Amino acid sequence: MLNISELPLRYVPSRASDRLLQPFWDYLLFHQMPLISSPFFPVILAFSSYLFFSVPFAVLDLLGEKVPLFYQYKIQPDRKPTLGMMAKSFLTALYNHIFFVLPAVIIGMFILPAPALPQHAPTIYEVFIDGLAILLIFDTQYYIWHFIHHKHPQLYRWVHAIHHEYIAPFSWSTEMLSIPELMTVGLWSNQDPILLKCHPFTTWCVTVFSIWMSVEDHIGYDLPWTLNHLVPFGLLGGAPAHDMHHQMPSSNFAPFFSHWDRIFGTAVPLKKKTMKRS
Length: 278
Prior knowledge:
Blueprint lengths: L2 E2 L17 H10 L1 H4 L4 H23 L4 H4 L11 H29 L4 E2 L6 H28 L1 H8 L18 H17 L4 H19 L8 H4 L7 H10 L11 H5 L15
Parallel strand pairs: 1-2
Helix pairs in contact: 3-5, 3-9, 6-7, 6-8, 6-9, 9-11
């Protein structure tokens, strides 16, 4: 189990009054300790975030043209995910977590030292800067991995092809991954914050935010209020870039940002399709 370093047995108000997150961190330490100290907490946080973020867009897909306010932004309106496709994607993610992720966590409990939970919360600045660093490092790692697996036919077939089962991505397909890919992504997601010596709270924030970005990449809608539109200068690829990747697999390899695709000439802009009328 995780421990609180240098934490007294009774509650002592934090002296770090300049840290805006300290009251919330104190609440977590003194009222949610069994949950946040569990080695299963990161898995619970990640999978529940995937569920929470995916459900609204699944409902939107099922309603389809009945909600024209949203459906007008559908990138591939002639390709609609079915309940069967959604169930297959979700069950694949659930199976992977039950039979591979959870056993990996259990094994790690016996071979890895239990990290300590610090008494002090991170500053807002630390959360932002460290979180951005984690995302940039992961973006670089995945760009290289993704590029290699698309250029090597055997690696693509054995490891990455399952993610390209559907030409038009949808929210549940975010975690339609093979075991090797899931474990690789999981390794980076766990080790990058450790290497950067990030605060646990920062790591948890990045976990939720990165899963939101991943789901948003797969929703299949170019909504005007998504992050790729809110962040200026086209710094994020978003759903348009990743949807285009599923249509043209030799393009747009980066998971979040757009700079590596621009630098190496693999960026391809979205070519939105229109609904075929009979």
